[in-house]
Amino acid sequence: MTIAAVLTAAGSGSRLGHALPKAVVPVAGVPLVVHAARALLAARTADGASVTQLVVTAPAAHLDTVAALVGEVVDEAAADVRLDVVGGGRTRQESVAAGLAELTDDVDVVLVHDAARPFAPPALVARVVEAVRSGHAAVVPGLPVVDTIKRVGAGDGTGRPVLETVPRGDLVAVQTPQGFARDVLERAHAVGSGRGADETTAASDDAGLVEATGVRVWVVPGDERAAKVTTARDLMVAQALTTGAPA
Ligand SMILES: Nc1ccn([C@@H]2O[C@H](COP(=O)(O)OP(=O)(O)OP(=O)(O)O)[C@@H](O)[C@H]2O)c(=O)n1
Ligand SMILES: C[C@](O)(CO)[C@H](O)COP(=O)(O)O
Q1: Ligand 2 neighbourhood includes 114 CB (under 6 angstroms)
Q2: Ramachandran region of residue 160, left (φ > 0), alpha (ψ -120 to 50) or beta?
Q3: Most buried residue among 39, 135, 156, 168 by CB atoms closer than 10 A?
Q4: Structure confidence at residue 53 (pLDDT)
Q5: Per the domain annotation, does 60 fall within a domain?
């Protein structure tokens, strides 16, 4: 089994509202993309398998910065890891597709992970890989939904009408890293490529593209530490959990 990881870091972080692209914003003095890359490279399966190719998608104007930051992580890992840094696309889906194009021929398992989930622990990464290795071609980590979920209709200017309350017992909130048999993920991106140009049509995760090809996606237990940094509040929480100090 040869494992590669595509680490998405090309977003601007518009909802974060920081002067820097989100992936290079620091928590505890360390950029998010560095935290995320460290976790991916630290992960080990029960028999010692680890990520041997890391492909990072970066904003076009920050390719060199991201390459230098993640290059240090690869050096620290003291393992034989190939690093590629590529420019991202217009959407996350396009960025992942650009990352997949860099995979070396020997890769057969692919993880897709967000720099925006910098504290996904290595054990979670390993859990996803193990589930792929056990025979599931597509695996996502998920956590139970804690809020009551309602489907709503079009608004009238004062609010939106509730159409139904969705039973939440069989709902999960899905995280990254997501893991795939390479051929399944590449085919899903090829089939879904027409959706990728625009946020309104692009898949919000890779498993969604795989589902659309009729392949079953499996859920393994997620981890609260893999929470996504989307807003300024998320960043403050991440900082407080990491250092005990406000951002
Ligand atoms: N064109 C894009 C858009 C997003 N991403 C990455 O996909 C992950 C999840 O995206 P999100 O959290 O939405 O990040 P941003 O797109 O940067 O945030 P926003 O939507 O607030 O602008 C992030 O690691 C982000 O860097 C990417 O590689 N390429
Ligand atoms: C891939 C993801 O992290 C799974 O929860 C999420 O869908 C990314 O969402 P965004 O639309 O890029 O914020």
Answers
A1: yes
A2: beta
A3: 39
A4: 98
A5: yes
CA of 48 to the centre of ligand 2 (A): 29
- Which pLDDT belongs to residue 245? 67
| Pocket lining: 102 vs ligand 2, CB cutoff 6 Å | no
User: CATH no. for residue 107?
Assistant: 3.90.550.10
**Best residue for ligand 2 mutational test, from 114, 174, 185 (most atoms within 8 Å of Cβ):** 114
Q: Encode burial over 174-198: b for 16+ CB neighbours within 10 A, e otherwise.
A: bbbbbbbbbebbbbbbeebeebbee
- Residue 61, helix vs strand vs coil: helix
Structural domains in the chain (count): 1
Q: Is residue 25 part of a domain?
A: yes
Q: Is the pTM of this model over 0.90?
A: yes
Q: Which atom of ligand 2 is nearest to the CA of 199?
A: 11
The pLDDT tens digits for 40-81 are 999 999 999 999 999 999 999 999 999 999 999 999 997 899
Regions of the chain with pLDDT less than 50: none
Q: DSSP character for 224?
A: G
- Show the CA angle centred on residue 89, arms to residues 71 and 117, nearest 5°: 55
CA 227–ligand 1 middle distance (angstroms): 14
List the domain range (segments joined by +) for residue 71. Answer: 3-142+172-243
Residue 163 lies in a domain: no
Q: Which of 95, 205, 234 to mutate to test the pocket of ligand 2 (most atoms within 8 A of CB)?
A: 205
Within a domain: residue 148? no
